[in-house]
Predict the 3D structure of the following.
Amino acid sequence: MRNYPHYEIVVLDKLDYCSNLKNLLPSKSSKNFKFVKGDIGSANLVNYLLITEGIDTIMHFATQTHVDNSFGNNIEFTKNNIYGTHVLLEACKVTGTVHRFIHVTTNEVYGETEVDAIVGNHEASQLLPTNPYSATKVGAEMLVMAYGRSYGLPVITTRGNNVYGPNQFPEKLIPTFIHLARGSPFPSMEMDLMCETTCIVKMWLKRLRLCCTREVLVMFTILGKKGKEV
């Protein structure tokens, strides 16, 4: 927030089991920051925020994640990842206020990459999801693409790899190992031999800034508008 005082940032998050409001404490006192507890699946709320806050940029981070969890209550993944994305897109179409919709998805939409693969996947590679989580991310991507082509919505899709960094929820791989190393009890995880790539969150965010007309530092699902420069 301090680095981008000319932008007004609205964070919309429903505070699921893996959320922690303490992570927002460094930004809470900033005048250009607002937090709204709510679900992107609520069309009335999303439309209200786009209009009343004068939103012109959406960076859509919100997602039901973690592959292991998707083998259980996978209907929730469909609701959050596909339906939630659809609500955001429709709100953008109806209100007409958004000039850029950045959809943050995952490289897992490509499916598994062999450990000995010489060349990795690229943007035009076939999408071959292998679990309910990545399948719902593919579904969301198709909606984003359709709204871009059918309604001219200015959309950008990014397929990042696994990220890690401070305050990450401990169900992820690296935080799990850190907890185990510290002697903290934590449920075991099933590991497979497919190739995994990771990136520290600061490096990842720097690259996401390139998706904006101007640099904007963002996290979660963020609705933003440009304020007056001084």
Summary: Confidence is low (pLDDT under 50) at residues 187-196, 213-230.
